[in-house]
């Protein structure tokens, strides 16, 4: 039987209530520490205030804000009171935020000062800062609160996917599904760790880590958002032992050579990377920068949770480029056409962390097979020992002259070039091939590769159809709101550059 009943109530009150729960670097008053008793009290105060407002059980309450302690307290308080938390990407355009709030049927919004302008008129707002009547300080109701016991599969939160095309989809996740995630990952040794969170709290990865830290009675160092220099400085000042990041975040850190060199990074023991393939070059550079840290490549989805892979049952060492061996409590398979036991193909999975479905989207076909497996649209291969390797998204795959190209394959190859720090490969239209690959490349510091040299390297190290027809060198890559590379922005830029090249030819 689970020791947790509500996803908003994960604090173990048998542990030291005075221990630091959160070091908040995003508030108006500068860095502030909050102990577990204070976080618990703030969470109960939110739950009490929402209940007094007379909302009905299951009503949706949104949060539109950068990372800060009030975000966490509101998120936990909403769920603790039996309502549904809806964290929203505050970086979305105002129109998209309004669409999400409308789709969710939000009854109220918590927000920071910067995001208030993007909240719709007529919807009750609680602003985290300031002295207004509707400020967070005036809204909360301190005191004891009896946690609501949810029913089976009762929704705890809606997480809206990034929505590269069309309206983002609201993933409905239950209390039980993510309590299972917490309990599956929870071990006694986690209490000693200090977690640095800079990924946005509207994203599953950051939220899952915050819940794990809370349940483990561990400390969170919370940055308002990711900026490479401030992230590095936070490591030096606050001595976190555990980092979690998408590969572009690590790549951006490594380019801050002076800050990295002048900062003591020795506290870091674990680095968990995920959400995108990790190249051998980036892995090697990470090891060099953090020689004491164990670096792992991880995988998860919003729809089916972050627990998918784990250690090998026979204790075999995990290859660094692998995401691990299938977790014993998760069913998965690789599908290639009619073959449901392929060594390479699209990943389908079943897990206790599976979503209930998408909220209010009758226009979207549920991504489930007839036998109940979630269709991830991610492509994997497995080796002879059962270890799995993330190859890329089927959505990113494109066809050039009849050949399937997975950008991640080409990127990994390009990043083995000693002159290349980071590469992104995308398609552009081509009258003959249909599409053709082009590349944006960040050179290593002090290196000056040429376009011709990169093309020759690609032709020598991969099938000819994979080599980029254009190569552009850049100092940085645009990032989407989840800190992944913004491929849509690069595709637009590539089309413009190809058109300009054709015009000048």
Q: What would the principal axes of the Cα set say about the shape?
A: globular
Structural class: alpha/beta
- Beta-strand proportion: 15-25%
Find the CATH superfamily of the domain at 398-504. ANL, C-terminal domain
Count of individual helical segments: 13
The CATH architecture classification of the domain at 398-504 is 2-Layer Sandwich
- In quaternary terms, these chains amount to single chain
Number of strands: 25
Roughly how many Å apart are the termini?
A: 70 Å
Q: Which radius of gyration do the C-alpha atoms yield?
A: 23 Å
Mean pLDDT, nearest integer? 91
Secondary structure: helix percent: 25-40%
CATH class of the domain at 398-504: Alpha Beta
CATH topology of the domain at 398-504: GMP Synthetase, Chain A, domain 3
Cross-sheet strand order for the largest sheet: 2-1-10-9-11-12-13
Low-pLDDT parts are none
Largest sheet: 7 strands, mixed
């Amino acid at each position: 039987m689970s020791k947790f009943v509500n996803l908003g109530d994960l604090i173990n009150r048998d542990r030291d209530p005075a221990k630091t729960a959160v070091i908040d670097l995003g508030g108006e008053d500068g860095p502030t520490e909050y102990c577990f008793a204070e976080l618990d009290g703030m969470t109960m105060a939110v739950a009490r205030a929402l209940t007094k407002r007379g909302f009905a059980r299951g009503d949706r309450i949104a949060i539109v804000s950068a990372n800060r302690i009030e975000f966490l307290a509101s998120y936990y308080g909403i769920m603790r009171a039996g309502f549904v938390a809806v964290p929203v990407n505050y970086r979305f355009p105002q129109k998209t935020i309004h669409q999400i709030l409308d789709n969710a049927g939000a009854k109220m919004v918590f927000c920071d000062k910067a995001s208030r302008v993007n909240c719709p008129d007529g919807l009750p707002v609680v602003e985290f800062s300031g002295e207004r009547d509707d400020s967070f300080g005036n809204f909360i109701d301190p005191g004891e609160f009896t946690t609501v016991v949810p029913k089976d599969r009762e929704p705890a939160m809606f997480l809206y996917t990034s929505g590269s095309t069309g309206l983002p989809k609201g993933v409905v996740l239950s209390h039980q599904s993510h309590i299972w995630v917490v309990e599956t990952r929870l071990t006694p040794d986690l209490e000693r760790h200090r977690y640095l969170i800079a990924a946005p709290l509207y994203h599953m990865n950051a939220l899952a880590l915050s819940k794990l830290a809370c349940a483990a009675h561990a400390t969170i160092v919370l940055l308002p958002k990711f900026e490479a220099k401030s992230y590095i400085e936070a490591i030096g000042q606050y001595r976190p032992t555990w980092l979690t990041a998408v590969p572009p975040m690590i790549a951006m850190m490594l380019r801050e050579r002076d800050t990295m060199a002048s900062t003591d990074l020795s506290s870091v023991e674990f680095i968990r990377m995920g959400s995108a393939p990790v190249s051998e070059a980036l892995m090697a550079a990470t090891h060099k920068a953090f020689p004491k840290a164990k670096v792992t490549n991880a995988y998860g989805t919003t729809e089916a949770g972050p627990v998918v892979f784990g250690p090998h049952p026979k204790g075999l060492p995990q290859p660094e480029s692998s995401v691990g061996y299938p977790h014993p409590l998760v069913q998965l398979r690789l599908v290639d056409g009619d073959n449901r036991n392929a060594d390479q193909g699209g990943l389908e999975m079943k897990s206790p962390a599976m979503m209930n479905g998408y909220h209010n989207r009758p226009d979207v076909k549920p991504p489930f097979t007839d036998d109940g497996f979630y269709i991830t649209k991610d492509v994997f291969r497995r080796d002879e020992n059962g270890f799995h390797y993330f190859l890329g998204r089927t959505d990113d795959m494109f066809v050039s002259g009849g050949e399937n190209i997975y950008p991640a394959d080409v990127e990994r190859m390009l990043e083995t070039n000693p002159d290349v720090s980071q590469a992104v490969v995308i398609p552009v239209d081509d009258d003959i091939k249909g599409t053709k690959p082009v590349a944006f490349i960040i050179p290593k510091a002090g290196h000056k590769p040429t376009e011709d040299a990169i093309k020759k390297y690609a032709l020598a190290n991969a099938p000819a159809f994979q080599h980029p027809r254009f190569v552009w060198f850049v100092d940085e890559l645009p990032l989407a709101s989840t800190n992944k590379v913004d491929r849509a922005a690069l595709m637009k830029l590539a089309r413009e550059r190809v058109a300009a090249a054709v015009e000048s030819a």
